[in-house]
Design a protein that fits this description.
72 residues, mainly beta, three-stranded antiparallel beta sheet, three-stranded mixed beta sheet, elongated
């Protein structure tokens, strides 16, 4: 379930080049910082919480062009 509320995301950045070509196992793609993303992610499990209590989830992404922006 997604909403339009912003949240922070973990940003990982490549050391050099396109990470999807140079580090296919993502072993040497270091954490950079937290950035704003234009959405929020929640989990709703109606079997556990029939009243639809939402749990906000963490988000992480690899910043392939290393510009610090969420631009898929």
């Amino acid at each position: 379930m997604c909403s339009v509320k912003n949240q922070k995301a973990y940003r990982y950045k490549p050391l050099t080049g396109n990470v999807l070509l140079t580090d296919t196992n993502l072993n040497s793609t270091p954490y950079a910082d937290m950035t704003d993303i234009p959405f929020s992610v929640f989990a709703v499990d109606e079997l556990i919480h029939p009243t639809e209590i939402k749990a906000q989830l963490n988000v992480a992404y690899i910043d392939a062009d290393n510009d610090g922006l969420w631009n898929p």
